[in-house]
Amino acid sequence: MSGSSQELVVRKIEKGTVIDHIPAGQALNVIKILGVGGGKHTVAVVMNVDSKKYGRKDIVKVEGKELSPVEVNRIALVAPEATINVIQEYKVVKKNKVKLPERVQGIVRCTNPSCITNKPREPVVPTFKVYSRSPLLLLCEYCGNRISQEEIVKQFTG
Amino acid sequence: MFKGRDVLSILDFSASELEQLFKKASAIKPGEKLRGKILATAFFEPSTRTRLSFETAMLKLGGSVIGVGGEEATSLAKGENLADTVRMLDSYADVIVIRHPLEGAAKLAAEVAEVPVINGGDGKQHHPTQAMVDLYTIKKEMGKIENLTIAAVGDLRYGRAVTSFLYGICKFGVEKLFLVSPPPLKPREEVLDFLKASGTEFELTQDLDKVIGEIEVLYITRIQKERFPDPSEFEKVKGSYRLTSELVEKMREDAIILHPLPKVDEIDLKVDENKRARYFQQAAYAVPVRMALLSLLLGVE
Fold it and tell me: Which of B87, B109, B111, B255 could bridge across to B251 with cysteines, CB 3.0–4.6 Å?
């Protein structure tokens, strides 16, 4: 990628969020998770660019949107090394690394149909322990079922 | 150590806690220790031994039993959720035993109830008190639990009793563990990972005949039609194993055969008369073990 075209795709935004250090190939999933693909937001996607830290990475820029904690947690499940930059008046005013917590609660559904958390009308919140970070595997605290990152992405993106 | 605790998985108990339970089970006598205490049995799946042995244990200690039997006989049939049913039992009883077809149902019940909740079997996942009975049987019949050569035979994938047994036996240390099943019924990945992490030496095999001469404890289970997500999968593996008198004669003289029961056709009826068959004794031990457990959970010495 030439210097001028790189400048073009990563041009500054006035207000919004830049999600950096997304593992190469995951940018479209991040967009689906945020639900900003076909909506009111202007979205810029840069895929498979050089990264000093990770070799290759994706970047997603969403104009006019700040992420909720739930959205940040969801992104942590598909891009555990991502950085969230909050932009105001063309400047980064906040920069946070997403952090995959020890327990993931209320974000992911258990894929085991005979898990109590899938029974309608029971007051139970699906809760998972992070069993492995790389590759990501979540362990359902109710039924012991394990969920892979692929299954998580499928849940978020339908 | 036990008072007020929930009993959801055998993994929640250390070997020394289990030894304490077994010591109490060996010494326990019928009496009136639990007079005035009420056990609620909430069984949303068929059960004979678990339910009756809990009821017998409570009655032998002077306590009383109330019961919910089957979803169709409860307000669940009217659309009440499990959590509300448990809340009601929580206000009536001092301890609740629950059996449910869904995995994690006992954990949900324990979150809702203030009194101790005992998992009497949830889906294919856990049956901790059966494992306590199994380990106690080995201790009584073999004189020790540690460092035995053990085979688990049958449905190692969907069987909750055998899964809990494997978790339990590894807490004490195993000389060698043979996991004998057709490939579709081999233990689930999380169970195999647990065995690896515990340092247990184990071997997956389909050939019981090959290993039967080495075994000190043979734990055979029914292939459970009701746990198969796909009935055609059951048709492929049903009748995979049959413990015959001829096979039993190849076993060591001092070996024992256990089965959590009910058994169907995986054990030849003639084997029942063999001195190695201890599964009816195993079912009998369920009463003192559950007497001891109820006493400990309710804090009665």
Answer: B255
